[in-house]
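Minutes, project huddle
Topic: does the predicted pose make sense with cytidine-5'-triphosphate bound?
PN asked that the exact inputs be recorded in the minutes so nobody has to dig through chat later. Recorded below.
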Amino acid sequence: MDGSLAGRRIVLGVCGGIAAYKAVEVCRRLIDAGAHVVPVLTKGATRFVGTVTFSALASEPAQTELFGAADPIPHTRLGQSADLVLVAPATARVIGCYAHGISNDLLTNTLLATRAPVLLAPAMHTEMWEHPSVRDNVALLSRRGVHLVGPAEGRLAGGDVGAGRLADPADIALAAARVLAGVTRDLVGLTVLVTAGGTREPIDPVRFVGNRSSGKQGHAIADEAAARGARVVLVTTVERPVAPKVEVIRVATAAEMESAVLARAADADVVVMAAAVADFRPKAVAPEKIKKDEGLPEIVLEPTPDILAALGRAKRPGQTLVGFAAETTDVAANAAGKLRRKGLDLIVANDVSAPQAGFEHDTNHVVVLDADGVATDVPLMDKRGVARAVLDAVLARRGRTTREERDERE
Ligand code: CTP
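Predicted holo structure (tokens), as shared on screen:
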């Protein structure tokens, strides 16, 4: 656990679910790793485990009350002094309250009063975990940068088997260590311009030439960059939700994307072109819907402007340009060719024919190539994880080029 927990102040929130008994083990592991643990139990939790158990194991007595404790404002003190708020088990109720800003007990108040990272370890029955309201609440929190561990699949209370089992206490402690080790605001001071989604090139008022890009990867990059402290401008063709701090510019066609991107690129330290820009568009757009009885229409295509190539030509010193390459064959070689042709710093090569990767999936498997030939394989993971890896590669590249520029000057 590389010492990330030692000396760190962790508020351990425990909610009312049968898995609350496992929170005792989580508490013990955190203490063993040297953390300072302050347990906060909901009323429901106390029906499953006693406060005495936690008070005996933790660094401070367990707290349950918003009112009536010696401290008149316990939640602000807890929230402000925490290095991490870990909720294990996190029930549907507490997840829902936290997602919607509802504070009706000490734990939910503490969650809203903290600026520390928050790690949730959900546990509930499969039906509840899979309920659309819970899925939406978890997705909303995840977009806001809240960390999650589990749930795992396995035996649930009452003998059922399925998803919703609390992650293993050892995994929860490990996840807490990872969050504490990796809380990075390493993009503070940088402006990141991201594009997302596929463009739609009109044929007539109702039809278009388009592609299957969902925009999920570009939105994940925008969310991740914002969570790491960047000022983010997202030019997108899709209606997907995005972190509140991100400035969103909605466009539809390659031409609209080009003007939005070129207008904002000069200010950007990093540009990530994750959008699937159509390469061709109808030369003429029919002003009225083309009717069947007029016979088979002939649609003449023309190339769209290559936005990324234009950015490559206009690239200013200190700017990092990232392209995406959606390939189905010779992925690395094709991507490396694009990187050179378009004057990029990095290219994210995506085998869109691989299972569970590329368009429409929630997961992706990519290789990040940089202009010096450094290749980083990012194994199949969720698109937020891929976003993290892409931004790590951006920072690594910026670090290298800054060093080179400095060496050249000296
Ligand atoms: N791109 C762009 N403008 C275009 C087409 C693509 O900015 N008109 C960007 C994409 O956002 C992506 C990268 O260029 O980051 C790669 O796009 P792709 O279409 O795969 O590359 P091409 O060079 O057009 O090659 P091909 O389609 O033949 O594979």
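Observations noted during the meeting:
- The radius of gyration is 25 Å.
- Residues 312 and 343 are 5 Å apart (CA to CA).
No decisions taken; revisit at the next huddle.
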